[in-house]
């Protein structure tokens, strides 16, 4: 009957805008940031999680987290851990909190972080990494984690049980394969818009030689620049090497179609976020017009309802998921299940700060216990800021390698939290 008696949040920001790391057509000067959360039992089990933002507004995200403190402090931890859908459904169903969305934006991301923090505690209680905790749950237990409200036209609980049951055969074998073969990674490191041509070419060649199976370039600010940069990347990587592009929501629909057609000669693996992330009809129109070039979105997708529409209308050929955008592990399970049911491949969004660490668990779980495949799938990778984590991702030979450390890999080093706390941490006072 242990009650949650410890809760703390931090506004942690890294001055990445100085090197233009992370720069794209919409986000020219990001300071990668974490609205960071921990709660649990003092002297006992504690969880960690964070919401990724890109600087200004991280204080708003922290305030949203703080507003959830009364819903968590004093709760019986065992009760929450015994039903991992309970807190998620309570918070997303709270009528006054719902008004601030519903189920989208700052408050929904804060709720997702609380849910993720509880999953970290669950995994630590079981002394397993999160991906393995999920992979060991029964089909019925997994299906019970999902909120089917607004999904039933495409996914019901009995259908979800069936999908998870179909994937139960071979779980153990796939777990072993994951440990021996890793999970495909692709890198966005060469492609930031603020990098020089020389740096682009050097990083493209490094990506290929390091074994990454594809790269992704940011586009959408200037078409002639995009053509020049794609030509350089294609030369550096060679014919047939998969190159995706990402416009980060920059275009109108007609503009996207024209722009993508002008870049199609470079044999694009996919075009990511061509327009507003909520515009299902827009993605559908773009996808039809630029076929066979694949169109995708998802990292800014507000929730499972938009995911259902994107998938069932075939507005996207593939989907990104983001660990910190929607209502946590539970809502991402819903999105992964809809994608698996409709045979849409998922290429999880990562990078930022802590996103690689978080989303790898969902991708590993998807391989072991849901889609059962690594074909035409890869987790995004960017080699930034991993040194601030207690259990940083292991990425080499172009692959993510699964962690065996208990939890969700979201815990940051105490020193990093204090050094980069905004605005009074020593790294900011010195800036
Ligand atoms: Mg993207």
Secondary structure elements and their pairing?
Layout: E1 6-13, E2 33-40, E3 46-53, H1 58-67, H2 69-72, H3 77-82, H4 86-93, H5 95-98, H6 105-126, H7 130-135, H8 139-144, H9 157-166, H10 171-181, E4 183-191, H11 197-209, E5 215-218, H12 223-237, E6 243-246, H13 253-263, E7 268-272, H14 280-290, E8 295-297, H15 304-312, E9 318-319, H16 328-341, H17 355-369, E10 379-381, E11 394-396, E12 399-401, H18 414-419, H19 426-429
Parallel strand pairs: 4-5, 4-10, 5-6, 6-7, 7-8, 8-9
Antiparallel strand pairs: 1-2, 2-3, 4-12, 11-12
The structure holds magnesium ion.
CATH topology heading of the domain at 171-415: TIM Barrel
How many alpha or pi helices?
A: 19
* Beta-strand residue percentage: 5-15%
Helix coverage percent of residues? 40-55%
Number of strands: 12
Present as ligands are: magnesium ion
- Rounded to the nearest angstrom, the radius of gyration is 21 Å
Unreliable sequence segments: none
User: What's the architecture of the domain at 171-415, going by CATH?
Assistant: Alpha-Beta Barrel
What is the assigned CATH homologous superfamily of the domain at 171-415? Enolase-like C-terminal domain
Q: Give the CA-CA distance, first to last residue.
A: 46 Å
Major β-sheet profile: 9 strands, mixed
General form:
globular
Q: Class of the domain at 171-415 in CATH?
A: Alpha Beta
The helix-and-strand class reads: alpha/beta
| Mean pLDDT level | 96
């Amino acid at each position: 009957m242990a009650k949650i008696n410890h809760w703390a949040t931090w506004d942690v920001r890294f001055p990445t805008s100085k090197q233009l790391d992370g720069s794209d057509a919409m986000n020219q000067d990001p300071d990668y940031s974490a609205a960071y959360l921990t709660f649990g039992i003092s002297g006992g089990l504690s969880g960690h999680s964070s919401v990724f933002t890109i600087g200004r507004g991280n204080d708003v995200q922290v305030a949203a987290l703080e507003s959830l403190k009364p819903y968590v402090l004093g709760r019986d931890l065992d009760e929450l851990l015994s039903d991992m859908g309970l807190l998620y459904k309570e918070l997303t169903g709270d009528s006054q909190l719902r008004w601030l969305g519903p189920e989208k934006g700052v408050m929904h991301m804060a709720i997702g972080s609380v849910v993720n923090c509880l999953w970290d505690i669950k995994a630590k209680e079981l002394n397993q990494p999160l991906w393995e905790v999920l992979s060991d749950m029964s089909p019925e237990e997994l299906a019970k984690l999902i909120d089917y409200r607004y999904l039933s036209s495409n996914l019901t609980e009995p259908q979800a049980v069936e999908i998870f049951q179909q994937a139960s055969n071979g779980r153990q074998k796939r777990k072993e394969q994951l440990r021996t073969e890793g999970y495909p990674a692709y890198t966005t490191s060469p492609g930031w818009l603020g990098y020089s041509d020389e740096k682009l070419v050097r990083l493209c060649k490094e990506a290929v030689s390091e074994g990454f199976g594809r790269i992704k370039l940011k586009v959408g600010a200037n078409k002639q620049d995009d053509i020049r940069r794609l030509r350089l990347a294609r030369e550096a990587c060679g014919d047939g090497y998969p190159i995706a592009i990402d416009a980060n929501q920059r275009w109108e629909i007609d503009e996207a179609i024209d722009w993508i057609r002008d870049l199609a000669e470079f044999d694009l693996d996919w075009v990511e976020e061509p327009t507003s992330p909520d515009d299902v009809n827009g993605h559908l129109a773009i996808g039809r017009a630029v076929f066979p070039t694949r169109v995708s979105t998802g990292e800014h997708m507000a929730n499972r309802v938009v995911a259902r529409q994107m998938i069932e209308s075939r507005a996207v050929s593939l989907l990104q998921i983001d660990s910190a955008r929607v209502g946590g592990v539970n809502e991402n399970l819903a999105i992964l299940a809809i994608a698996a049911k409709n045979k849409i491949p998922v290429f999880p969004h990562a990078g930022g700060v802590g996103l690689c660490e978080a989303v790898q668990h969902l991708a590993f779980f998807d391989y072991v216990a849901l889609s059962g495949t690594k074909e035409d799938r890869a987790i995004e990778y960017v080699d930034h800021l991993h040194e601030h984590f207690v259990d940083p991702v292991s990425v080499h030979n172009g692959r993510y390698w699964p962690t065996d450390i208990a939890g969700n890999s979201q815990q940051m080093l105490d020193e990093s939290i204090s050094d980069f706390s905004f605005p009074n941490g020593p790294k900011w006072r010195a800036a």
